Amino acid sequence: MGCGMKLVSLGFLILLTGCSTLIDGAIPSSTMKKIREINQKGPYLGIVVPNSYEMSPLLQSSSFVADKKLPYLDFAGRRFRIGKVESKKVIIVMTGLSMLNAGIATELLLSLFRVKGVVHYGIAGNANSQLQIGDVTIPQYWAHTGLWNWERYGEGVNDALSLESSGDYTRSIGFLNYSDYTVGKTNGNSSANLLNSVWYQPEEIFPVNGTPEVRQHAFWVPVNSNYFSIAQKIGNITLGGCVNSTCLPRKPEVFIVERGCSANVFVDNVAYRQFLNTKFNVTPIDMESAAVALISLQEGIPFIAIRGLSDLAGGGSAVSNEAGIFASLAAQNSVDVLLKFIALLPL
Q1: Are 305 and 260 in contact (CB under 8 A)?
Q2: What pLDDT, in 10s, does the model give residues 190-227?
């Protein structure tokens, strides 16, 4: 056989070998085999957590037992940890910061694995003056409050937004007027502001059981009614109230609240904190929960979120750093409530 023919044959063999490792699209066959093996033991409860310091208390808990044969699967930059929590089969995934990361990780979780429900947990800012740092909140509804239509200067509440007539945008949810927050207003009157107003918008979702490319809109996404009923049974639970020698005014508690919101914004501003609470009646403010809620809604999967309050979202002292002090306490408290919730779930 000539040298040229040998090279062609070798190249063909290499090509065949390469192709044999890739099936099911871009997923390597070795990974797909593990996914099938994992799914044979399902379905699982999916646990979605933003960051490592929020996940560590769960992994270090005696309630978590990793699967002996396949404790984790790495895919697309995420590590999906397989095991049991409170004797329930779970898959745990860390998303990373922000709505984008939370949405991607949740979609991967629900696309790759047999998941019967999603529980999301972590820390959050507190917009409710009736609650304190360390408390753990379980909202009934979540909204993404970072999708805006920014109105041009000179237009007002009675002027239609661009593309509103085609159904792309709406004035039904409400707006934030920057002039209302001008410092040094006289006689309570707002002065003109070139930033004008931003109008809050619902997300577009495309349900898996709907018609492809036919959108639906969602702003307030409800958690699963069965999960919410179970959460209401958590009752009294002992939560941490001190970090070293720094203790909170009272022992933290679990609160069932009406609403929470998320956006790609770390809120450390008292004016916006008060606006969100007054306008939307939200308590926890975070950067991921609404994304997990929207993906779960789109996929038709039961969902609930548990958020420990780590700071006052700008409502504390100007020189305080509540999140830096109490983030670990809030994370541990959210895990303690998570474990109680999972323990109440049926097998």
Answers
A1: yes
A2: 678 999 999 999 999 999 999 999 999 999 999 999 99
Which of 31, 145, 46, 26 is CA-nearest to residue 89?
46
CB atoms within 10 A of CB 4: 8
246-262 confidence digits (pLDDT tens):
899 999 999 999 999 99
Amino acid at 244: N
Question: Which of 39, 146, 126, 80 minimizes the C-alpha distance to 315?
Answer: 126
From the list 207, 202, 224, the residue with the least C-alpha distance to 306 is 224
Which run of H or E residues covers position 218? strand 216-218
Q: Taking each helix axis from N to C terminus, what angle separates 289-299 and 99-112, rounded to the nearest 10 degrees?
A: 30
Distances (CA, A) of 77 to 89, 142, 144: 23, 27, 25
- What is the per-residue pLDDT for 324? 86
Per-residue pLDDT of 92-119, as tens digits, reads 999 999 999 999 999 999 999 999 999 9
Cis peptide before 207 (omega within 30 of 0): no
SS (H, E, C) 228-290: HHHHCCCCCCCCCCEECCEECCCCCCEEEEEEEEECCCCCCCHHHHHHHHHHHCEEEEECCHH
Residue-wise pLDDT tens digits, 274-301: 999 999 999 999 999 999 999 999 999 9
H-type alpha helices, the chain: 3-20, 29-40, 52-59, 99-112, 225-231, 270-280, 289-299, 322-344
* Structure-derived torsion over alpha carbons of residues 123, 125, 128, 133, reported in degrees to the nearest 10: 60
Task: Quote the tokens at residue 71.
Answer: 């404790």
